[in-house]
Structures are given as structure tokens and as C-alpha cells.
Amino acid sequence: MNIILGSNSPRRKELLSQLGFTFEIRAISFEEQIDQRLDYKEIPKDIVSQKLSAMINKLGSEDLIICADTLVFLDGKAIGKPSSKDDAVSMLNELSGNTHEVITAVGFSYKHDTKIFSETTEVTFNVISAEAIHFYVDTYSPLDKAGAYGIQEWIGLIGVSSIKGSYTNVMGLPTQRVFDELTAITKKGAISP
Question: Could you say which of 21, 51, 57, 148 would form a disulfide bridge with 142 (CB–CB 3.0 to 4.6 Å)?
């Protein structure tokens, strides 16, 4: 079995490596379409389904592909990746003093079987000063992160007052669930329902 991570995310690569699996990375050339008719909790799973569909015809008979997508939601409204530093500041101002949901969907496809699940983590930020937000945006690289922040970075250390759910889910991969699913697939040679 050849495990493939269909993601360019350095955080997902690091987390999957730390789980002890050997894998290769294949970038996905893909324009995601958000179906606004879906309940917001279903959007990440739908995007993962699109990613898997974009990769499935490029797989060999022993290839197991893993795709993931992480979105931040505040009051049911999606907060994606910022388009600029000003956009990142605006997003962080919205999250400051509030609780938001981070939903990561993960999909596996192996031998024409597919399984997609999602995990939700609630993250609460203290009120973060304008100076701290500008320092973070100017010093770190929030433009490639949903919600304009990395929980493992400085802003997570000083801003997060509580978290309910998987910490690594906020980083982009719910490692405990991924480990269980991958272990089951590699032992059985098939995806369990």
C-alpha cells in the first residue's frame, strides 16, 4: 500500500509524519467550489469530496490517497484564508473575544472505496489588542491559514483562552482519528464503513 497525502500543507505533512506513517505528497491542482446550499458543517466534507474526485483517476492500484480541508466558522459564516495582510487583520479582529468552530474534513480513497469524516473543535479567543494582531500579521505568515492564524504560533499562545476538541484538528489534521482510520485500513487492506 502506497500512502499519498494530497496536500501541500506543511502542517499536515508534519503531523502525518509524526504519526509514523511513510507517505509521499502529491499536490492537487484544484479550484474548490463552495456549495452555499449546504449546511456549513457539510462544506469541508464537500470540498474534500471534490479533492478526492480530482485525484482518483491518477491513482495506482495500491495507492491510498488522503485529502483534507480545514475551515473556520464564526456564527456559521465561513472564514477562509485571508487575501492580504489587511484581510488577515480584519479576520483576527472578528475572532478576537469570540468562540469559533474549526472543522477539518478528511477523506480516504483506496481501491475505489471512499470514506470522508469531519471533526469540529471550538476555539475561544481572549480579546486581542490591535497591537498584538498587527504584530502577529507582520511577523508570521497567516495568509495560508484558514481564519488567518496558526494555533501553534504566537497568537495561539497569547490569544486562545480555551479549546474544546482536538488541538491538531485546528492545525489541519485530527491526528487521533486519522491514526485509527489509517491503522484499520492498513491492517484490513480495505476501508471500513
Answer: 148
The ranges assigned to domains in the chain are 2-188
Residue-wise pLDDT for 51-84, tens only, equals 999 988 888 989 999 999 999 999 999 998 999 9
Which amino acid belongs to residue 97? G
Average per-residue pLDDT for the chain: 93
Question: For residue 43, what is its C-alpha cell?
Answer: 462544506
Catalytic: which of 35, 63, 69, 86? 69
Global pTM?
Answer: 0.93
* 2-188 maps to CATH 2.102.10.10: no
Return the pLDDT at 186.
87
State yes or no: is 69 an active-site residue.
Answer: yes
